[in-house]
Specification:
The chain has about 290 residues and is α/β, with parallel strands linked by helices. The protein has a single domain, classed as Aldolase class I (TIM Barrel, Alpha-Beta Barrel), CATH 3.20.20.70. The chain has twelve helices and ten strands. Strand 2, helix 4 (about 90-95) and strand 3 form a beta-alpha-beta unit. It is globular and about 50 Å long.
Amino acid sequence: MADLDGIKVEKNYHLDREFSTHGDFHVKGAENLDWGMKKHLTNIFNPRSGNTVMFAFDHGYFMGSVSGLERLDLLVPRLIDHVDVLMATRGALRSSVRPDFRKGIALRVSSGSSMLDEDLSREIVAVDIEDAIRMNADCLAVQVFIGARGQLESIDNLSRVINAANRYSIPTLGVIAVGKDMERTDQYFKLSTRIVAELGAAIIKTYYCDNFEEVAAACPAPIVVAGGKKLPEKEALEMAWNSMRAGARGVDMGRNIFQSYHPVEMADAISKIVHEGFTACEAWDYFSDATKKT
């Protein structure tokens, strides 16, 4: 093990310089990947903006029926044309999403305890690589607990999924989970996102925090910011804008879309920020005008 004594803590994140390996591929850190991996990443990240809007509705895998997700078959078809990627379980996709849709798939492959269990940090790999291929998944999503009781198991899950997925040129999405004992600080997210990226995850999903520009700069893979709990629409748009201007390459909104009274308009307003560079105020005005017409 490396000697930790006397290690210099790096403070220069070179925020004035874009991450580059001297190539022109539009996804951060993916220039040296093979064609198949790049094709999947292109299905996730818009080639024009280099960014993505994910719509997460995988909450049922541990929460059961969630407010706003009671009828997937009615909600998801309304939103497909307004987002770039669906993040879901194989059961939800097969039962509630038409197979002729033309968007990316982030397939949830880790699973664990339900909300009835106090410890949600212990998960297993629930979907094998063959079924992920049958689902034509563009990336495999694995939850990772850094600094929690389930750290070793979740890193093992992540590593096994990366090893299997790489054999078939499928990217892995490392989902940073924040346990109840962990603080949502830039120090924590610098640690967790860097660990997951260095283990080989091609995409990192995490939360926004203070000094997020340093978190994004220090991570050699693109970061997609999780929406987290339901916020008032204006606050959710502000978080999306702050995330993008600080270096995120997309947002993954679940509850802030499906629990909105105007989910389609909310998804469109988020896309304006992510792909067209709208400010939070401009996106809020767009959302307000759109909802007046419905």
